[in-house]
Amino acid sequence: MAQKTSTLQDVARVAGVSTATVSRTLSNPKMVNESTRERVAEAVRVSGYRVNRAARNLRTQRAQSVLVLLPDLANPFFSAILEGISLNLSRRGYSMLIASTKQVHDSGDRLIDYLDDARADGMIILDGGLDPAVVASLKNAPQSKPILFACEWVEDGNFPSVRSENRRGTGTAVRYLHSIGHRKIAHVTGPDGNVLMHARKDAFVAECEKLDLELKPEWIIPGDFSLRAGCLAAKTWIAFEDRPTAVFCASDLLALGFISELSRQDFKVPQDVSVMGFDDIDLAEQFIPPLTSIRQDRLLIGETAASMLLERLTTQSGEGTEHAAVVPVSLIIRESTAPPNSRP
Amino acid sequence: MAQKTSTLQDVARVAGVSTATVSRTLSNPKMVNESTRERVAEAVRVSGYRVNRAARNLRTQRAQSVLVLLPDLANPFFSAILEGISLNLSRRGYSMLIASTKQVHDSGDRLIDYLDDARADGMIILDGGLDPAVVASLKNAPQSKPILFACEWVEDGNFPSVRSENRRGTGTAVRYLHSIGHRKIAHVTGPDGNVLMHARKDAFVAECEKLDLELKPEWIIPGDFSLRAGCLAAKTWIAFEDRPTAVFCASDLLALGFISELSRQDFKVPQDVSVMGFDDIDLAEQFIPPLTSIRQDRLLIGETAASMLLERLTTQSGEGTEHAAVVPVSLIIRESTAPPNSRP
DNA sequence: CTGAAAGCGCTTACAG
DNA sequence: CTGAAAGCGCTTACAG
To answer: Which of B213, B269, B197, B199 is nearest to B237 (CA)?
Structure first.
């Protein structure tokens, strides 16, 4: 089997032309005469020629690939985003490299090495919690190698980004709960220091004030986006003397964990308390009860991130390119929320 | 900012040696005199030199990267496996390229191109449902570019693989249900044609026979690993005149969907029926009720796949390397299973 | 232990 | 429209 792959030279020999002509036929067909073009195309066919990317990359000083950086590969939240990124990347002939910020850090590698050693032409970072020193080093990346944040972001450095409407989504959630009669609403937050946690918490507080809702400090329950934190938050809620009638969780996983723990303790959702999440992960719809949530279009976030990066990659100096894209969210009403005191 | 990255030449000039010596210092330090080595190391430091991978790859005819192929990027089942693969790959300086078989197919690319065009040195495939024509083309891959299947596999081609103990896990599940008193057990299968579906279904039937259990043909309920298929299967179960007292689902998602639908119809798990899954995904533990399942060690599967591939990559002719690794599964007993007729 | 030199497989000014 | 030639930045026999 293992047939040696043929080179441009081989093809040129078969077609009786120079390697320059073969190369042009492949990358810029209109530059070559039609009959020559056909001869070359035939030679390519019979030899099963494939361009050697390492050679092309070295010559053109491009890697034709993009690094996508996740905080944690094992977190299923990111899978749909990856799908969207990959879709747009592969359409344009780019490969997708994946690494987790944690692993890169542990192995002592520096992120910017991926750019400096010509492995990638740019990167999409899905982790706003990067070490400040790492972020600082990223600012030294050449302009020709764009770096873009998606979902999360860092305040420092003025990197382009794409994100969901976190504030508007949060406001919508609170107004919805208010509209069905809730006047005491708690919030389970994301992890301390996370930009999304702050955006959502701030928007939550602001909306409560705007609606003139009572908001005791302890009703802001610290969490971290995980199922387990949701369980803990439920215990906190149960222990309250004055229990809010609704809980807005900063992620769906928090909400699912919250509901799980409540069920275990024989509380009913939404009869005893309305619970809603943020994200609308696949499971939200199938849960018992199906979860009311703020839907993030993760596929679109990924597609947008990839196309923004590609635009910067192919535009000299990135001028005229969009700097911050905001992807709409939507309120998905299901059965985990209901008017307060709706117990029969 | 955008400082031009320096080359071996630059470093050589600074250190007052040849590029050969710099190269050796970097890749094979013991070949060079200690004082020279120190001079070079210092020059590397001051110049911030990073090897250009494209150049090295071209010269060494290696890509230093591995392609991981998923059936579907949006499926969270794979995330922990990716984590394991990435861990072992990055330890050895390899990059991880990701693509989905569906996308590759849609864009008309051929899988083997990744190997033929020098983008990757080998691949790990997590999709046993590849088109036979694609599998056939894969057999033409040079021996120096190994292809390995993980989780799923194809019967054709004798590719190395790593997988879970699907049969033993299934047998364990059935025996456990039998041991707590169940005599009528149904099975919700994976997607038609999937190798795991067959392995688990066959093992299920075999174990039922061994235990001399009644098994009506309709108790084998066709599914496809998804939440939705689990919901449909529940409707099928509800419609049975003679209902099995336990259901073994070929995946956790099936089991969760099954339970969801049952709850919606006011059946109780495990009081009305015991339900168990396969995989032990993160959510299994948090579900209501927590799901009894057969645990697959997805991280270990990924780590094993990567190290097997790397071994073949660095061993001439791959001789003496393991051909098929089987990763142990374990029974995780939670609250979705109980003796039959356990309703108070 | 070190260096001069060849060459990996492309692309692209430059000349015709 | 086509070709000869240079060169991208490395590694590695080969010679000393």
So the answer is: B269
> At a CB cut-off of 8 Å and minimum separation 6, what does B298 contact?
B77, B80, B81, B84
Distances (CA, A) of A275 to A208, B5, B172: 16, 53, 38
**Domain assignment present for A105:** yes
Count of the separate structural domains present in chain B: 3
Confidence of residue B275 (pLDDT cuts 50, 70, 90): very high
Please tell me which residue of chain B has the smallest CA distance to A61: B54
- CA atoms lying within 13 Å on the CB side of residue B235: 6
Q: pLDDT value at position B318? A: 58
Range of the domain at A23: 8-60
Domain CATH number, residue A130: 3.40.50.2300
Q: pLDDT per residue over A187-224, tens digit each?
A: 999 999 999 999 999 999 999 999 999 999 999 999 99
The backbone region for A280, taken as left when phi is positive above 0, alpha when psi lies in -120 to 50, beta otherwise, is left
Residue A318 counted as domain residue: yes
Q: Nearest nucleotide, C1' to the C-alpha of B40?
A: C2
Cα A246–chain centre separation: 28
Across the interface, which of A72, A96, A227 has its CB nearest the CB of B286? A227
Give the chain B residue whose CA is nearest to the CA of A92.
B107
Residues B51 and B75 in one domain: no
Residue A76 falls within a domain, yes or no?
yes
pLDDT in tens, A237-268: 999 999 999 999 999 999 999 998 998 888 99
Residue A342: its pLDDT value, please? 59
* Beta-carbon contacts below 8 Å between A and B: 174
CATH label of the domain that carries residue A51: 1.10.260
Q: How many C-alpha atoms does B92 have within 13 Å on its Cβ side?
A: 19
Q: Which nucleotides of C are covered by protein (CB under 7 A)?
A: 1-5, 7-13
List all nucleotides in chain D with at least one atom under 7 A from a protein Cβ.
1-5, 7-13
- Residue with the larger pLDDT of the pair A160 and B285: A160
pLDDT at A344 over 50: no
User: Which of A84-88, A96-100, B105-109, B230-234 shows the lowest per-residue confidence on average (mean pLDDT)?
Assistant: B105-109
Q: Quick check: B290 and B335 in contact, CB under 8 A?
A: yes
**Nearest chain A alpha carbon to B112:** A50
pLDDT digits (tens, 9 = 90+) for B6-56: 999 999 999 999 999 999 999 999 999 999 999 999 999 999 999 999 999
Same domain for A157 and A98, yes or no, is yes
User: Does A84 reside within a domain?
Assistant: yes
| pLDDT for residue A105 is more than 90 | no
Name the strand (E) or helix (H) holding A235.
Answer: helix A227-239
Of A39 and A105, more confident: A39
Of A79, A95, A286, the CB nearest to B74: A79
B302 and B227 in one domain?
no
Interatomic distance B64 CA / D13 C1' (Å): 23
Please state the pTM of the whole predicted model: 0.92
Q: How far apart are CA A189 and CA A182, in angstroms?
A: 19
Structure-block tokens of residue A4: 């040696």
